[in-house]
């Protein structure tokens, strides 16, 4: 079983196991997590868990709109870049409120996932909230520089949301590694500079000290899946 990391004096909460697959865009998280779920469901009640916000695909859909799409997409990307850059000022309360609301929606999804785990359902998810790399990999969105007390308060509120979610340490994390050229071949519409940052920061994802298995996502998929299944089976046997 999994459990929440409890503060001193607080009893840890017992939960059904959770397997998290993390990595850069284009590393194959969705495909691998779906196949792992099918494997786990052979022996126990299990469900998929989705904790993403869909922002990237939503932005790309906007970019395909006639006439207004491309400039609107560039505008939204510019705001997103400023939100995730530690050295850039947060671009105003409206953008900060938008980011905070998105994070609150993620927290609501996370609570639904916890309820399923409390009911004894094993979860396999293709991403997981973390605080190791703010701005990327499902970490806090408001990583820019707060230029006033109100923005600082909103930033602190959001970080607390992620700290609380990250305190629920996964039973196992499968961390997928891939090179930038492979990602761009798989996802040619993605921004190369952003993908480079994501690829380079995957090794920094400590995931609250969860057991981590690193897998090269450029090897033949049959080999990748076999390694992941072996890791999952071992983790569930220990849980």
Provide the gyration radius in Å: 18 Å
* Beta strand %: 5-15%
Low-confidence stretches: 6-11
Total number of distinct structural domains: 1
Give an overview in words.
With 239 residues, the chain is an alpha/beta fold. It has one domain (2-238): Rossmann fold. The chain is built from 8 helices and 7 strands, in the order βββαβαααβαβααβα. The strands form 2 sheets. A 5-stranded parallel sheet has the order 4-5-3-6-7, with helices on both faces. Helix 1 (29-40) packs across helix 8, helix 2 packs antiparallel against helix 3 and helix 4 (92-118) runs parallel beside helix 5. It is globular. The model is unreliable at 6-11 (pLDDT under 50).
Secondary-structure blueprint:
Layout: E1 2-3, E2 14-15, E3 18-23, H1 29-40, E4 46-49, H2 55-63, H3 69-84, H4 92-118, E5 122-125, H5 149-166, E6 172-177, H6 180-186, H7 192-201, E7 212-216, H8 221-238
Parallel strand pairs: 3-5, 3-6, 4-5, 6-7
Antiparallel strand pairs: 1-2
Helix pairs in contact: 1-8, 2-3, 4-5
Please describe the structure with a list of short key phrases separated by commas or semicolons.
single chain, 239 residues, alpha/beta, Rossmann fold, five-stranded parallel β-sheet, two-stranded antiparallel ribbon
């Amino acid at each position: 079983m999994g459990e929440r990391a409890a503060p001193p004096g607080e009893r840890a909460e017992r939960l059904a196991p959770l397997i998290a697959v993390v990595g850069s865009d284009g590393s194959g998280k969705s495909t691998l997590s779906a196949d792992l779920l099918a494997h786990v469901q052979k022996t126990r009640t299990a469900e998929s868990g989705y904790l993403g916000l869909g922002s990237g695909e939503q932005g790309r859909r906007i970019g395909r709109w006639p006439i207004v799409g491309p400039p609107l997409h560039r505008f939204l990307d510019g705001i997103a870049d400023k939100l995730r850059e530690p050295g850039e000022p947060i671009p105003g309360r409206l953008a900060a409120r938008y980011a905070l609301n998105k994070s609150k929606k993620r927290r609501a999804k996370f609570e639904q996932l916890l309820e399923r785990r409390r009911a004894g359902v094993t979860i396999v998810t293709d991403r997981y909230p973390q605080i190791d790399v703010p701005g990327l990999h499902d970490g806090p969105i408001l990583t820019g520089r707060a230029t006033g007390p109100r923005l600082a308060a909103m930033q602190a509120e959001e970080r607390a949301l992620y700290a609380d979610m990250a305190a629920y340490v996964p039973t196992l994390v499968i961390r997928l590694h891939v090179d930038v050229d492979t990602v761009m071949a798989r996802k040619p519409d993605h921004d190369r500079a952003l993908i480079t940052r994501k690829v380079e920061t995957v090794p920094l994802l400590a995931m609250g000290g969860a057991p981590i298995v690193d897998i090269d996502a450029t090897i033949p998929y049959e080999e990748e899946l076999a390694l992941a299944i072996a890791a999952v089976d071992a983790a569930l046997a220990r849980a």
